[in-house]
Write a structure and sequence with these properties.
0% strand; 12 helices; mainly alpha; globular
Length: 311
């Protein structure tokens, strides 16, 4: 049975983009106010001011507000406008099984091997001198922003970073990309692979990191299929959180040992580790798909309360 939709996929996409646009405007206003009232600097110099270690708390707070206003809230509002129970449709009402969680954790672990190989592939793709210079500048800007926000001098900083930079972004981004955009794109293309692929391309591109494009594309595909098979956003949030937490943990450990945190990502696996990782991830997905189908089949029947008016 299907719930009665108030909007077609194209209308939902337009509404999602509209809400995201409003979120960008609101976050810009909030950023300008904080810069003027808290830091006492004009908007044009705010970005440089936020890079300073003494302003890291403000920078993190702005990241939370921005991500919520630009991603999470638009995802919920556009899903709510589409009809039915928004929390259920976006995937936040479902319960995870222990076996599902275990498989997801293993997929993320072996996904690191695949992602590392794709990162190396990304680096050896030939580029013109002008493009290489442009992408290198973008990469340096992105890395500097990440390092500024992820500055951790104590376990308290590390714990705070896990919440602000790992848990909350995982929830907010998954609400937008998997809970909302992916479902809309599958509805538009009428093809699960295309819908997940397009969403993953947008997910990777929005991070503005060329040299991390292929690994994030693969991560987006993995998160997309986790949600597609399970209909449970908490599982893709868990995988996303582990990915974020792993990066933060490596940065923290390197900082504690007095090493340059950026050196943590210079090490890489041999290319054949990537092939092995891909084989294991695909195998785990076959098990995950079967387990998710079994779990969905034994869950309580779909009710009118969950999905709105049934047809």
């Amino acid at each position: 049975m299907l719930f009665q939709q108030r909007l077609n996929p194209w209308s939902q996409l337009a509404l999602l983009f509209g809400f995201c646009g409003v979120g960008i405007v609101l976050s810009s206003i909030i950023t300008a106010i904080i810069g003027n009232v808290v830091l006492h600097v004009p908007l044009v110099t705010l970005a440089d001011e936020l890079m300073k270690p003494e302003n890291v708390s403000v920078d993190r707070l702005l990241q939370v507000f921005t991500t919520f206003l630009v991603m999470a809230l638009p995802a919920f509002l556009s899903t709510y406008a589409g009809g039915g129970n928004a929390m259920y449709r976006i995937g936040l009402r479902q319960r995870s099984g222990i076996m599902q969680l275990g498989i997801v954790v293993l997929m993320v672990f072996f996904g690191f091997m695949l992602g590392d190989a794709l990162s190396e592939l990304n680096r050896i793709i030939p580029l013109s001198a002008d493009l290489e210079k442009t992408f290198k500048e973008m990469e340096d800007t992105y890395s500097n922003q990440v390092m500024a926000i992820a500055s951790m001098k104590s376990f308290a900083d590390y714990f705070t970073s896990l919440i602000v930079l790992a848990i909350l972004p995982a929830i907010f981004e998954e609400m937008l990309f998997r809970g909302s955009l992916q479902q809309i794109m599958i509805g538009i293309t009428r093809n699960a692979f295309l819908g997940i692929f397009i969403t993953s391309v947008v997910f990777s591109a929005i991070h503005l990191s060329y040299y991390g494009f292929l690994p994030r594309l693969a991560l987006g595909m993995m998160l997309g299929y986790i949600f597609y098979f399970s209909k449970n956003l908490w599982l893709s949030i868990t995988a996303h959180f582990i990915q974020n937490a792993y990066t933060l943990t490596i940065l923290f450990l390197y900082s504690r040992e007095g090493k340059n945190p950026t050196d943590a990502f210079e090490e890489s696996f041999p290319w054949y580790y990537g092939i092995a990782g891909a084989v294991v991830v695909v195998s785990l997905f076959l098990i995950f798909k079967k387990e998710s189908a079994r779990k969905l089949a034994i869950e309580a029947p779909i009710t009118q309360e969950d999905h709105g008016e049934l047809v």
